Amino acid sequence: MKPSNFVTLAVICVLSIAIFMFFGYSIGRYVQMDAMRGGIEFIPDINPGVCAVDINEITDYELRGSIGEKHVRVRYKGKVVIPDAARNFTIQY
After folding, report:
1. Could you tell me the sign of the dihedral formed by the alpha carbons of 17, 23, 25, 28, in that order?
2. pTM of the model
3. Is residue 80 a contact partner of residue 74, using CB atoms and an 8 Å limit?
């Protein structure tokens, strides 16, 4: 074989090893981050007399909720959210 063929073969081997190492690291990092992410734990309300805002659903860049008391202010990006007569509100973001 010619010396240039050895160099080409060496470069291909080094690049292949580097690519495999990168993908191996990426997969390992993804698995580690996924394992660190815990689920949401719902706990009972310990202060039922306190004013509350209930988030009912978040779908398609829309947050829907209801306000439990009349004297609650909900702000989104510095603006006050005004609920309807049934104390429900929708925020589109």
Report:
1. negative
2. 0.40
3. yes
